[in-house]
Amino acid sequence: MWLLLKYTLLYASVLALVALGGMFSERSGIINIALEGIMVIGGLMGVVAINLFNAAGIPVVLGVILTILISGAAGMLYSSLLAFSAVNLKADQTIGGTALNLLATALAVVIAKRINGSDSPKISYNSTTNKVLSNLNFSFQIGPLTLNWFIVVALAALVAAWFILYRTRFGMRLMACGEHPQAADSVGINVYKMRWCGVLISGLLGGIGGMAYIVPAVGDWNFEIGVAGMGFLALAVMIFGQWKPAGIAAAALFFAVFRAMANIFDSIGFLNALNWPKEIYNMMPFLASMVVLAFTSKKSRAPKAEGVPYDKGSR
Amino acid sequence: MEDYVIEMLHITKEFPGIRANDDVTLQLKRGEIHALLGENSAGKSTLMSVLFGLYQPEQGIIKKDGQEVKISNPNDATALHIGMVHQHFKLVECFTVLDNIILGAEPMKGVVVDRAAARKKVMELSQRYGLKVDPDARVEDISVGMQQRVEILKMLYRDNDILIFDEPTAVLTPQEIDELMDIMRGFKAEGKSILFITHKLAEIKAVADRCSVLRKGKYMGTVDVANTSVEEMSRLMVGRDVQLVSTKDESHPGDVVLQVDNLTVPSKVSKKDAVKHASLQVRAGEIVCLAGIEGNGQTEFIHAVTGLDKPSSGTVTLCGRDITHAPIRRRSKLGMSHIPEDRHKHGLVLDYPLEYNMVLQRYWEKGFQQGGFLKKRVIREYSDRLIEQYDVRSGQGSTTIARSMSGGNQQKAIVAREIDKDPQLLIAVQPTRGLDVGAIEYIHKQIIAQRDAKKAVLLVSLELDEVMNLSDRILVMYEGEIVGEFDPKTTDVQTLGLYMAGAKRMDKEG
């Protein structure tokens, strides 16, 4: 059971971080379907940073903080491509996002192979290869329960997101841009700037989320599989959570349970006894998202202006 | 020396292909209500957008209190205390009234928006000017009238003293219009200066001191409202004499053509029924008008009658045949013509050429096709004839893509198509929405001609002038029910307004 809780909290924090990122982007009016790709890039850069800091031998605490920041920064940088195409070039956001998703995995494979100097796109960062800073440093123990620092980051992000959205001027203006950009413009709000901010925040959280998915769970990662659909699952979490922080927290927990089962079904007695293939469990979160969204999408209320490029000149 | 608070001198603003403002001058005196009159696309909104900083003019200067100023965005306008109520309200629907008022000018307490202070200021303004609003209601839940009050409070909250109203009365009931006029007079008494954009002459007469007229982007002059007749202003606006009131003979209603009994239509947006047990008759040779404020079930009623939607109960009978569940093509063949409310959604295939749009309901007829192949030559000839006969103007005649035509000509094309079908029943839903005086005059004439040709006409309109002017009988719809029947000769706009707002209703038997 502790194992189930561990993995549920792990995946819930990943989904919550990335879904919150998606929320900031869509609340500003930009559909961010590129979350998957942003996660890949954030995760890759985080892993690369772990290995660099390990080689440099810097203190562990500093290393953990810095690698998390670097993964976020990498996500932001990558998301700026989406922001540029969607805000400045007024391109179709779905197509732009899809292109970024395709690019990310390919780019990650190329970089990983280059780093390895071999044909393997797999990068290791476990305690056998890394003596100073390894994946183990991202976890801590409370009694029998193993937790990781990304849970703390996700909780902080949830509280901060709620506060920013509903209490600050920035949040109010951001939401106005996603609902009715003409109205925002007419009261002197720079819609382009707000949308850039929304996308960059989604890059930050998506990048950290990518690392949160890869690093605490395993000691090496094959970048050929990207992040295995977690970015898309986060989109479902965001929709199921109705673009609201509290809803996203609940939805993230819900989907995380399904995702965690895929990891540990063989250690749960009755599930193991069923003798189903692993693929069934791997499919579960996605099947659940289809069922849930089919039933809830009628009441779903997306930001009104999302996906529509804002053009100052048009009336 | 006159005391001008705002002067816009020789403003020219071009968009690709058109010159929206061509050397326009507008001078606003301190403390006056100044009307800006012009037809659709005469450049009124463009001029105001220039003043509000949304567009930059190619030529011309703006002066505030005699000093030249540069207004390059709405923030500059706000800093100069210029505020604007836009024609299409710029309100965030899922925000509260309070949040909408303070958006962009939020009072802060540290990093947090100080909503308590904002509420205090808003409530003070609301009381002082009699602008009743509920600060905690969401904009999507409040009436259009209240939304407008929110827009006005937005300006007052920013301490604006030059107030621009862009066609503020288009969406209001007569009572709300009277209230708005009183509010405007109150602002004037406080020394605020008001620019009032409209194409309704009666409103200018009622409230404005002076009036500047634009025609096709050009400045036609400024007149004193008190010394100028409505006809003169209209001539300045259109450039020719316009019949403001259509004349028509007595109606001689014949047999019942359309009979609707106890029609109930479910709503798409809420659980309630949009139309509740509505019944009406339209006879040959009369124009029956369904009046009411937007969103009171007229749209759903018409959709059920024309077959765009299904009623949950009740019957619709056309010329004695039950068509309640008939497909649209059958209704059309039985003699129903429909000028739809949304001409883009239900009236035209926008990316088709005009000729195909002209035969949308008839292309399968023997004359227009043979063995499944369209007879393009016949269609072209037919379309050319309609264009000629109904004076539909477009760039390339029959081959013009419908999307590229002006709204007025798109509407004329639909009218041509629907009338040329020689229907028994013509249903016209807001046939003149968004059209200018000339096109309105034309379409009104066509509708009256249909009536005189012994056709039954069911008209749905939000414009009370149009209702009073055209109809032989008026039915008022309120919250999905028909709450009153009137003879336009013995009733007035004020009475209709009371029924439209739900303040009065006739007994169902009465």
Tell me what you see in this structure.
The complex is a heterodimer of chains A (about 325) and B (about 500). Chain A is mainly alpha-helical and about 325 residues long. Chain A has one domain (about 10-230). In chain A, about 70% of the residues lie in helices and about 5% in strands. Chain A has helices spanning about 1-25, 35-55, 60-90, 95-115, 150-165, 170-180, 180-185, 190-215, 230-240, 245-265, 270-275, 280-295; strands spanning about 120-125, 140, 145-150, 220. In chain A, the strands form two sheets. Chain A has a two-stranded antiparallel ribbon. In chain A, strands 2-3 form a two-stranded antiparallel sheet. The N and C termini of chain A lie far apart (about 60 Å). The model of chain A has no long low-confidence stretch (mean pLDDT about 90). By secondary structure, chain B is of the alpha/beta class. Chain B contains 17 helices and 24 strands. In chain B, strands 6-9-10-3-11-12 form a six-stranded mixed beta sheet, sandwiched between helices. A six-stranded mixed beta sheet of chain B has the order 18-21-22-15-23-24, sandwiched between helices. In chain B, strands 2-1-4-5 form a four-stranded antiparallel beta sheet, with helices on one face. At the A-B interface, helix 6 and helix 7 of A face helix 2 and strand 8 of B.
